[in-house]
Design brief:
The structure holds two protein chains of two kinds. Chain A is mainly α. Chain A contains eleven helices and no strands. Chain A folds into two domains: 31 residues; 221 residues, MetI-like fold. Chain B has a single domain, classed as MetI-like (MetI-like fold, Orthogonal Bundle), CATH 1.10.3720.10. The chains are: A mainly alpha, B mainly alpha. The interface between A and B is large, with 58 and 57 residues.
């Protein structure tokens, strides 16, 4: 199938899906199920309000700050775990224990301790992202090419130099992938923190729209959330390729 | 002596550190009067009073039932709709934009919409869990089937295997490792969705009780709830790992052999 056919089919599918939505909304009637046109109208209305842009900005800032903290700590932790058998063994059980516990479970604790603030959201994002980043980084350290390591050592590089010149660059691809995967995750947690925990941002906008019974705005916010999530996802891919274009795994993809 | 430390040290550490953390928590929090951080002893007492087994019937069972049903529906729907999508390029191309949007949309965002439309019965919650948990399995099934080695399929065609049997006997097993990974993520999503759905507007369930305890500042109960939810998270994750052996043991074995060769 040519690219144009694929694109045309995609457009057709999207239009059909929206038409189906409109048909169901028209059939059901009432105010609860908002049709696509009313939703679009509500989105346009939202876009005209400064507060909407502010809340969106808050959510994004929250996600980025939480993720940055998680990246710094996660990479340091991963380097330690990956390079020292002692640290790896010491932290194995705590990490295996905490990893399957999602941020929603921890939410009541951070909410109790910090309160419904932006910091609470950032703490939650930090919790949700730090362990996956640490584990992936540790795997990256262990996967460092042994030949490159031995070459560096036989050239008389010190441990620190080996770490800086061989291990770190080689691990960078793993870190890049981990952060790219964590980015949409961070965005979702930022929304959850607002929706369930009352942190500022788009999550809170959902609650406000739902509580005031403004279905059109509720639908608008949800659709905007979907778009933003998509944008964040794509941005992650783009950044990863930009920042790591020099790495062998990415050069292969490009070739 | 030092050789002994080098050999057994890490293994000992592995046992000592977790025990040390729990012991440290116990001792440090023993005389705590801080309302936020109650003594661990008190948390465990409340854990026992609440969850062993007073509220099991009224709150734990409903939560797990919704989780299980929603997850099962998500997996079945995800695989059943993923297979034909992956094998029909026209359908796949048409569904891709909607699918991409649906996949990116945070599952949590579905909760208020569903509540607005259908109210807050258990059936609605099952639907929310199922929908929130489906995308990973669906996408993994599509990716998995698209990634099946074309040679395998050609062999099936050459031997005159009918299309539906090719799907079941070649595509599904070949895509199984990918699908399994998707199902694993789906379970995580289902777990998150069920807790989140209980934290807004439910009147029972573990998530409801835990957030209620937080809002009413009964912090020992809240910690006990978090402990139970965490244990459930670990348990379902462990179950998935256990399920891997019977389902994918053949694949892991083949991979191990291939690595050694």
């Amino acid at each position: 199938m040519s690219r144009t056919t694929t694109a045309a089919l995609g457009v057709l599918g999207a239009v059909l899906a929206i038409l189906a939505w409109a048909a169901v909304a028209a059939l059901v009637g009432g105010t609860a199920l908002v049709g696509p046109l009313d939703t679009l109208e509500a989105i346009v209305d939202l876009a005209g309000q400064q507060t909407f842009w502010d809340t969106t900005g808050t959510t994004l800032v929250m996600a980025v700050r939480g993720l940055l903290a998680a990246t710094v700590v996660g990479v340091l932790l991963g380097l330690l775990v990956g390079s020292s058998r002692w640290v790896a063994q010491a932290l194995q059980v705590p990490i295996a224990f905490l990893r399957p516990i999602p941020p929603v479970v921890v939410l009541p604790i951070v909410l109790l301790v910090i309160g419904p603030t932006q910091q609470m959201g950032e703490a939650l994002i930090f919790y949700g992202c730090v362990l996956p980043i640490a584990v992936t980084t540790a795997n990256g350290v262990r996967e460092t090419d042994p030949v490159a390591l031995q070459t560096a050592r036989s050239f008389g590089l010190s441990r620190l130099q080996v770490a800086r010149r061989v291990t770190l660059p080689s691990t960078a691809a793993f870190v890049g992938t981990a952060v790219r995967i964590a980015l949409p995750h961070a965005f979702v947690i930022a929304v959850v923190a607002g929706y369930l925990g009352g942190a500022p941002g788009l999550g809170q906008s959902i609650v406000a729209a739902a509580v005031s019974g403004d279905s059109a705005r509720l639908f608008a916010v949800v659709v905007v959330l979907g778009w933003l999530a998509l944008v964040v996802h794509e941005l992650g891919h783009l950044l990863e390729r930009r920042l790591l274009h020099w790495h062998t795994t990415y050069r292969k993809v490009a070739a | 002596m030092s050789a002994l430390v080098g050999r057994w040290g890490p293994a000992v550490l592995r046992v000592v550190v977790p025990l040390g953390i729990v012991a440290g928590w116990w001792v440090l929090s023993r005389d705590s009067t801080d309302p936020y951080y109650p003594p661990l002893q008190r948390i465990l007492e409340r854990f026992q009073e609440l969850w062993l087994f007073a509220s099991v019937r009224s709150d734990v069972v409903p939560t797990l039932a919704i989780l299980g049903t929603g997850f099962a529906i998500a997996v079945v729907l995800g695989i059943v709709s993923g297979l034909p999508l992956a094998r029909t390029p026209v359908l796949l191309a048409a569904a891709m934009p909607a699918l991409t949007f649906f996949r990116a949309l945070p599952g949590i965002a579905l909760i208020p919409v569903f509540v607005e439309l259908f109210g807050f019965g258990d059936g609605v919650r099952v639907a929310i869990v199922a929908l929130a948990a489906m995308p990973p399995t669906l996408v993994a099934t599509i990716d998995g089937v698209l990634g099946v080695d074309p040679t395998l399929r050609s062999v099936g065609t050459v031997y005159g295997v009918p299309a539906w049997r090719r799907l079941l006997a070649i595509d599904v097993p070949a895509a199984a490792p990918r699908i399994f990974a998707g199902v694993q993520v789906s379970l995580q999503f289902a777990f998150i969705a069920v807790i989140a759905s209980e934290m807004v507007g439910a009147t029972r369930g573990i998530g409801y009780l835990t957030l209620l305890a937080q809002q009413t500042f009964v912090s020992a109960d809240m910690w006990a709830g978090v402990l139970l939810l965490g244990l459930i998270g670990i348990a379902i994750n462990g179950l998935m790992m256990l399920a891997r052996r019977p389902l994918l043991g053949w694949y892991d074995g083949a991979q191990a052999v291939a690595r050694e060769a």
